[in-house]
Amino acid sequence: MTDHAILLARPAVAARLAAEGADPAVLAAIAALAQGEVRRDQDRVADAWGRVTDDAGMADFRRLLTPLLERANFVQVGDAEFQAALAQESVFQVRLHTEPAAYADLGIWRRGTSPRTDTVRRWWLFRRPVSFTVWDRVLLLARLRPGKGPAALRGPQFKLFADIPDRDLEIVLPDTEVRMRTVDKLVLVVPALFGIGAVVSQLMAVLVFLSLLVLGFVGLSEAKVEVSQAQLAAFGAAVFFIAMFVTKQISRYRLRRLTFLRTLGETLYGRTLDSGAGAIHHLAELAADQDAVEAMLAWSLLRAGPATAADLDAAAERWLAAQGSGTDFEVDDALARCARWGLAEERDGRWQAADPAAAQAALRARWGDLLPA
After folding, report:
1. Cα(303)–Cα(310) distance, integer angstroms
2. Percent of the chain scored above 90 by pLDDT?
3. Does the residue 255 lie in any domain?
């Protein structure tokens, strides 16, 4: 699906448009009305989130959440995109594993894309460039099935993340596990192979010593078994060597796993913006900003003269590209909002902007619709 997200801060857009001649009072009124409308929807979504205790509650929450996601220009991650993300190599140099079948409910939405290139290490010595896409914001709605995943995360989860690489989408899922890559297994196995000969020789000495003791004890050996202090010392040294070798390998495995878990934790800590009601608040702010920026830009550009929807769309995309935010401007949505707010009207296939005085009067009138009857 096409990404329509405008990744420019609303105050920056308003300041730029004002510098180009747009009325600052009208721009401020547009922003205030957008926030007022979205706040009403935000309260409904937040109230529904508090009632998500079963399938019916989840369905109601999704129904109310969808319009807010659309206004914020989020795009749902489809199954093909999700599976492609799982199949790709991690940018963070860890192997992640998740089980989609463990979820009773799972929805992931993204907005804003930017291409990146990074250099990753391969087989210790070699480095190679890897190209990937970073999603500006990712929203997760998940509910694990009973008995699946960590007990503390089996309730409904609604989280907002920032700057998530498409290759590492599974990092946002609550049941994600860190597993060893082939190279990580070799890091553990290769050093162990160098010491396995010494371990085998020590193990053979221990087994021979124990066999002689057992045979002498049960009377199966005719020779008298005598144990000297030197033999006991050699036996103890062999047992100690084997124990130290096994302990070292276990410790190296645990240390490497803890390193991966720390990498995963640090990555999520720096990219988690909020959860639950806080994530809903962030989503509402994003929706209000998108509504305001689209209306501001459409009204300001139409002030230069009447234009068709296609001409306005092209002009808006040129303006956004000049600001460093090339995106597909959602002109139909912007014009519909301008018409509803009294900022513009269509005449014979061409759209004409209201003058600043008329625009302010129309915006004040729209505020009355937000007040309770």
Report:
1. 16
2. 45
3. yes
